[in-house]
DNA sequence: TCGGATGACGCTGATATACT
DNA sequence: AAGTATATCAGCGTCATCCG
């Protein structure tokens, strides 16, 4: 049986497009007719087109995932080298007008956006799925939405209720409620869903503001439109949906710096209407509440242990429907075959809170304040093969011995994921700032190092790289570092007009600068890169692997290492703060 | 900026090749 | 010759940023 992902939606934003997707399953709707008479013709492959045309002519209203979402195929029916070469092969693809339609004349969208629209419709309980057969049909709510007049208050009302039943939306509203000011997507994304783990990247707000502050105008524009994590994007999307039903408004989220300069990101704030709807939906008595709609697929999006993790969280929610003490919860999970440590379960509970379920702990007892639909957990045998997964074990161990917040423990995974280079950079800088308690700045951009850390006596130039197989010697990288060290020594505007070194305080003694590479692990002859760089520049540097990065943070937090002594660890080799707890 | 768009990548399952 | 193990490879699903 195929398991798919619902609950987290990337691209879709327009409710009128959503309505079309729901109307695919309503034979009396205008969009159904439009597909039947016009739009299906835009499907490129004649056999698929004919099959679907036949179904629409027969007023079929149940479709499979492939019929709806399709795949990415070029005219030859092969996976295209560029996604732009993909032609239409599904119902949703030809239902959505692409962004550049006017310019290009293209009449279909891609399979990823199509997947997003289907997810959205399922997540709002307008469309339901039979996961055994992988087929989709309309729900009662979906039918009311389909039949409501566009732009009517009835339509808005249906959407409002659907959003209030969707936990991530009430999580956003709750966050906006307690903040009571314009919030950035970064702040919201950091407190949404299973943030930090695979599928839930979020960038630290402070670091983003700092970055904006040290960027020129061209870079600023780029940062504002380009730089956001997956969770931040989810937050932005949800805010826009909420805005469209009148629960949220937009305005500038500002930060004022010590020099009086001010930086802005797009901000979101709850409206009076949003506030009263939130209060109403949470009701004082459970039977007046709006029941939350969840599916087990909401509880994780990706990753190799996905279904195991989803099931574990789903059972936690099931067990929480009656007040329960933590020890008892852990025991019951054990009986189901989930033998995870208390730390993991606690971090799941935290994740479920950020997901949007209100879970309270009084003394030892856990209370779930929300009413939840009776969702189904499929009977897969997740529990056997998936658990002894190395990386989970490693995370669990580090969580235990370092007592660091889960979002930093995730670095153990991020460091090995080349796709998440930016995430690795930002979370690392955040770790320095929050746990090492040292000044840390993200720079990024061309001809700048990734980041800096410093206090009044010393400064370190940092380069971070997420590599799945480890960092091996790379002379180009060494030369880049050498250039930065020279930049900083000469502080010459004509040499490098962006003057990134001005982010260091001016009074650091000239001979107290260091360089540092941070990565998953360092392999082969990496050490030669350190020696080479040190010799060329007559400075000292080091390499720090992600395990040591965390162990160092733990040592600092426990007071075993003073941050002022940090530079004593720089000796042109890999830094060893403490022995790794992993026997390899 | 908003509302998607794009290239990448791990996984899965099918086919090819090697080994017994 | 047939059966089994391993290598190769393409397609699918899902990001994680990126962009017109």
Give an overview of the whole structure.
The chain has 584 residues and is α+β, with helices and mostly antiparallel strands. It folds into four domains: 15-147, Foki Restriction Endonuclease, Chain A, domain 1 (FokI Restriction Endonuclease, Chain A, domain 1, Alpha-Beta Complex), CATH 3.90.241; 164-288, Foki Restriction Endonuclease, Chain A, domain 1 (FokI Restriction Endonuclease, Chain A, domain 1); 296-388, Arc Repressor Mutant, subunit A (Orthogonal Bundle), CATH 1.10.10.10; 392-574, Restriction Endonuclease. Helices cover 43% and strands 12% of the residues. It contains 24 helices and 14 strands. Strands 9-10-11-12-13-14 form a six-stranded mixed sheet, sandwiched between helices. β4 (248-256) and β5 form a beta hairpin. It is globular. The two termini are 36 Å apart. Mean pLDDT is 91; it is low at 384-388. The protein binds a DNA duplex (20 and 20 nucleotides) through α6, α12, α13 and α21.
Rg calculated over all Cα atoms: 26 Å
Number of helices: 24
Tally the beta strands.
14
Give the fraction of residues assigned to helices: 40-55%
As residue ranges, the low-confidence spans are 384-388
Major sheet summary line: 6 strands, mixed
Could you tell me the strand content as a percent range? 5-15%
Report how far apart the termini are: 36 Å
How are the strands ordered across the major sheet? 9-10-11-12-13-14
**Main CATH class of the largest domain:** Alpha Beta
Overall number of structural domains? 4
Question: Could you report the average pLDDT, rounded to the nearest whole number?
Answer: 91
Task: Give the CA-based shape.
Answer: globular
Architecture of the largest domain, CATH level 2? 3-Layer(aba) Sandwich
Structural class: alpha+beta
CATH fold annotation of the largest domain: Restriction Endonuclease
């Amino acid at each position: 049986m195929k398991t798919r992902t619902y609950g987290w939606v990337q691209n879709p934003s327009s409710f009128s497009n959503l309505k079309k997707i729901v109307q695919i399953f309503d034979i009396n709707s205008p969009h159904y007719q439009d597909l039947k008479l016009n739009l299906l013709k835009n499907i490129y492959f004649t056999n698929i087109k004919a099959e679907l045309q036949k179904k629409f002519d027969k007023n079929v209203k149940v479709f499979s995932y492939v019929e709806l979402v399709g795949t990415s195929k070029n005219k030859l029916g092969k996976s295209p080298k560029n996604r732009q070469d993909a032609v239409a092969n599904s119902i949703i693809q030809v239902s959505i007008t692409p962004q550049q339609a006017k310019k290009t004349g293209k009449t279909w969208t891609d399979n990823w956006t199509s997947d997003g629209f289907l997810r959205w419709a399922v997540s709002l309980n307008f469309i339901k799925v039979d996961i055994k057969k992988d087929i989709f049909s309309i729900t009662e709510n979906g039918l009311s939405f389909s039949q409501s007049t566009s732009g009517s208050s009835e339509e808005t009302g249906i959407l409002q209720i659907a959003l209030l039943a969707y936990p991530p939306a009430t999580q956003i509203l709750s966050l906006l409620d307690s903040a009571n000011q314009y919030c950035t997507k970064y702040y919201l994304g950091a407190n949404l869903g299973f943030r930090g783990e695979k599928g839930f990247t979020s960038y630290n707000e402070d670091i983003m503001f700092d970055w904006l502050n040290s960027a020129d105008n061209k870079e600023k524009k780029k940062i504002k439109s380009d730089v956001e994590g997956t969770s931040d994007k989810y937050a932005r999307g949800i805010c826009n949906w909420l805005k469209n039903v009148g629960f949220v408004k937009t305005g500038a989220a500002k930060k004022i710096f010590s020099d009086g300069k001010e930086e802005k990101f797009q901000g979101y704030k709850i409206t009076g209407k949003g506030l009263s709807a939130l209060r109403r939906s949470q009701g004082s008595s459970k039977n007046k509440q709006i029941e939350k709609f969840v599916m087990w697929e909401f509880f994780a999006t990706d990753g190799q242990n996905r279904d195991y993790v989803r099931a574990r969280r789903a059972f936690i929610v099931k067990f929480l429907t009656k007040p329960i003490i933590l020890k008892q919860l852990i025991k019951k999970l054990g009986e189901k075959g989930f033998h995870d440590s208390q730390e993991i379960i606690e971090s799941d509970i935290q994740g479920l809170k950020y997901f949007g379920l209100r879970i309270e702990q009084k003394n030892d007892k856990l209370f779930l304040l929300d009413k939840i639909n009776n969702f189904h957990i499929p009977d897969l045998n997740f529990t056997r093969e998936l658990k002894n997964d190395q990386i989970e074990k490693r995370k669990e161990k580090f969580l235990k011995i370092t007592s660091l917040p889960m979002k930093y423990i995730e670095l153990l995974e991020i460091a090995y994921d080349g796709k998440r280079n930016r995430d690795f950079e930002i979370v690392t800088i955040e770790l320095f700032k929050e746990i090492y308690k040292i000044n840390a700045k993200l720079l990024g951009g061309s001809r700048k190092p990734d980041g800096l850390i410093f206090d009044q006596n010393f400064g370190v130039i940092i380069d971070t790289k997420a590599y799945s197989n480890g960092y091996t010697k790379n002379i180009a990288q060494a030369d880049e570092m050498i250039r930065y060290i020279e930049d900083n020594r000469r502080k010459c505007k004509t040499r490098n007009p962006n003057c990134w070194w001005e982010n260091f305080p001016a009074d650091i003694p000239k001979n107290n600068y260091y360089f540092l590479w941070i990565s998953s692990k360092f392999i082969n002859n990496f050490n030669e890169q350190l020696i080479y760089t040190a010799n060329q520049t007559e400075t000292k540097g080091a390499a720090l692997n992600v395990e040591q990065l965390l162990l160092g943070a733990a040592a600092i937090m426990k007071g075993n290492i003073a941050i002022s002594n940090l530079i004593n660890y720089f000796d042109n080799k890999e830094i060893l703060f403490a022995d790794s707890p992993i026997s390899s």
